[in-house]
Amino acid sequence: MNNLTKTTATTATKSVWNLNKVNLFVDLGIFAAFFVARDAHMTGITIHEWFGLAFVSMLLTHLLLHWRWVVAVTRKFFSQLPTMTRLNYVLNALLLLDFGLIAVSGIMISRSVVPVLGLSISGGRQWEGLHHLSANIVFVLVGLHVVSHWRWIVDAVKRYIIAPLTGNRLNTAALNRGV
């Protein structure tokens, strides 16, 4: 292996590690916003709505970080793909649809964020019902999503949180498998 190849391989490896690290911390932000925003009765409507907006922005960041995967799997969806990849794609599509419904219905019934922006939207009970139904469905979908990525989550937490805190060097080969 010549020096140029070594440098390119090292740079590619570093960018993969950095992308995994960014993915982990974006995902932790999504989890925190989801946890706080999940129940308006626990936090109050204002915090619920603002964390909901933060959640949507982090979710879009997550989607952009995985855009190459989305495009690649979309192109090959009806050709030969591993079953788990196809199932993961369908699950992600359902999550995107459900979170979209939560966001739109949340805006339609907003009592805090939308008025602060100087807008007035008259949402009805139908929007409230859709918001609650979608929010209940998303718990199942998020649970399935976490389970399907559990090995990556554990490996990334060990590599980027536990190892730096304890000063341990971990075998990070599992992270090379991707998300």
What key attributes describe this structure?
179 residues; 0% strand; 8 helices; mainly alpha
Distance between the termini: 28 Å
Question: How would you sum up the major sheet?
Answer: none
Shape: globular
Number of strands: 0
Estimated structural class? mainly alpha
- Unreliable stretches (pLDDT < 50, length at least 5) are 1-12
Taking all Cα atoms into account, the compactness measure Rg is 20 Å
Number of domains: 1
List the secondary-structure elements in sequence, H or E.
HHHHHHHH
Percent range for helical residues?
Answer: over 70%
| Alpha plus pi helix count | 8
Q: Report mean pLDDT, rounded to a whole number.
A: 83
- Strand portion: under 5%
Could you walk me through the main structural features you see in this protein, from its secondary elements to its overall organization?
Residues about 1-10 have low confidence and may be disordered. The protein is globular and about 50 Å long. It has about 180 residues and is mainly alpha-helical. The chain has one domain (about 15-175). It contains 8 helices and no strands. The longest helix is centred in the first third of the chain and has 35 residues, at about 5-35.
Topology of helices and strands:
Layout: H1 3-37, H2 40-43, H3 45-65, H4 67-76, H5 83-108, H6 113-116, H7 125-148, H8 150-166
Helix pairs in contact: 1-3, 5-7
Outline:
This protein is mainly alpha-helical. Helix content is 79%, strand content 0%. The N terminus is likely disordered.
